[in-house]
Amino acid sequence: MESFVLRRVRIDDVQFGEKSGVEGTRLTVSERELRELLLEDRFLKDVKVEIARPGESKRIVPIKDILEPRAKLDPEQEVFPGVISDLNYAPGTGTTVVLDGVCVMTSGRLVNFQEGLVDMTGPGAGFCLFSGKNNVVLVMEPAENISKHDHERAVRLAGVKAARYLGALGRNIPDYSETVYPVAGPVELAALYPHLPKIVYVCQTIAQGLLHDNYYYGVNAQGCLPMLVHPTEFMDGAIVSGNCAAPCHKHTTYHLQNNPIVEDLLDEHGKTLNFLGVIVTPVRTAFGEKERICRQAFKLARMLGAEGAIISEDGGGNPEADLMFATRLFEKNGIKVVLVTDEYAGSDGASPGLADITPEADAVVTNGNGNQRVTLPPMKETIGVLDTVERITGGHSGGLRPDGAVEMEIAGIMGSTNELGIENLRTIAI
């Protein structure tokens, strides 16, 4: 049986230096080297590289995407297949090196209003795992007179290039920890564990146009039907976020690389369940498209012999129609479903939290209420453009106080109610 190895190189500090490299648990970043790499793209006019460490009085806004630095141990193999690498390379096997404790953030002028905020200290930090990371922030200035779509593409590719560039610095570091995952197909898995319940994971990814898109192997998911992937493909960046959904619950590329549902199912595989694989499903806008995609996802699950499914949402509002349609279809045909979502239930939590419901959805995990209000104190330094806090999702006109404090909903904090369950808010049964 093949295997996939995730090799984590621990990083506790990031500094600037003349040459990029890793020594002990310190990452040194050459701004010159990184700028030269990124400015090869003619759609970028300039890039400034900033560093934000845990506990520093820094506010980062607006943030488009967040990625974890990763690279294959074998230079002949690649992460982020189809994005900036060989279209024919299949990820999810071999050894992938991770700079654990580091994130790449893409920032600069707003591409679209649904971009987010991270505070490195204070009450906002409690809502966001990225506040505890050493963040390399790319503050990008787009070329003149380009479209929003070209701007988004340039920012997305810059994040991927930077994540791969930094990840490769960990290849020859002797101190690391490793996790080994088996790689096998559903037929082999069914034979290995015939006594365990067969489970699939259905992972929604927004594909709605208007800058609400994700990319499968570099292809805009708008043109895709559901795709069966091995869980470890997520860890190699087979799905990259270009998604401008609300910051609190959109899946950044980091969330997809570190999908906790995938990791937990792999941990339980062969013990309490038989994890057959992941069905990645695009979320379109029209009801006809939603029905077609849900039926295709169900067909794949039934062909695999699934007895149970976890379905996670991406975004909010109309994706809940997909959640409920799929739940009815699965449950009425004997496949038990658990849903993972979040809510927009009003600032007092008293409003309906979901745009659609169905009686079959009787096992639901929610990861928080995006309408929860917070006041974030002023920070000593802003990375990015501070006044965008009044225009991003969760912000409002007048929300930026004269002293630099911010009144907003946690909808504007990156990942605060992430629907994969990776963040600090949680469901408590009462």
Textual characterization of the structure:
By secondary structure, the protein is of the alpha/beta class. α7 (287-304) packs parallel to α8 (319-332). The strands form 6 sheets. Strands 5, 6, 9, 10, 11 and 23 form a 6-stranded mixed β-sheet that branches. The chain has a 6-stranded mixed β-sheet with strand order 16-18-13-19-20-21, sandwiched between helices. The protein is globular. It is built from 8 helices and 24 strands. The longest helix has 20 residues, at 148-167.
The residue fraction in helices comes out at 10-25%
How far apart are the termini? 43 Å
From the alpha carbons, calculate the radius of gyration and give it in angstroms: 21 Å
Unreliable residue stretches: none
How would you describe this structure in keywords?
430 residues; alpha/beta; 6-stranded mixed sheet; 24 strands; 8 helices; 20% helix
Write the layout of secondary structure elements.
Layout: E1 2-10, E2 13-16, E3 21-23, E4 26-29, H1 31-38, E5 44-52, E6 58-67, E7 70-72, E8 94-100, E9 102-108, E10 116-119, E11 134-142, H2 148-167, E12 177-183, H3 186-192, E13 198-206, E14 212-216, E15 219-220, E16 227-229, H4 232-235, E17 239-243, H5 253-257, H6 260-268, E18 274-283, H7 287-304, E19 308-312, H8 319-332, E20 336-343, E21 364-369, E22 373-376, E23 381-384, E24 406-409
Parallel strand pairs: 1-8, 2-4, 6-23, 9-11, 13-18, 13-19, 19-20, 20-21
Antiparallel strand pairs: 1-12, 3-4, 5-11, 6-9, 6-10, 7-8, 14-15, 14-17, 16-18, 22-24
Helix pairs in contact: 7-8
